[in-house]
Amino acid sequence: MAPRLDLQLLRTWEERLEVEPCKTFGVHRSQVTCDYKVQYRLVGYCHENNTFYYDRMVNEATIVHELLHKKHPGWSESEVRAETKRLMAMIGDITGSE
Ligand SMILES: [Zn+2]
Fold it and tell me: Which domains does the chain carry?
């Protein structure tokens, strides 16, 4: 099954967070290899080419999380998580964060 990302939602959050629109790239799971016998995932923002990569259904909290990485490259993972939680609580839709 092809991964899905709600582009409309992505654009909405890009506007809210005042960041430039990013490119998106849906990666099929079969294109990802992993050396470890753990569950791997490929969801993330790449600063170098301004691209949002995803290999699964992406929820709203994940979109916000990755866009915060884009907006604040210097922030730590926990800073990004805290801000994601705050923003999600603000819009009254706590769907958990990545
Ligand atoms: Zn992160």
Answer: 7-90 (3.30.2010.10)
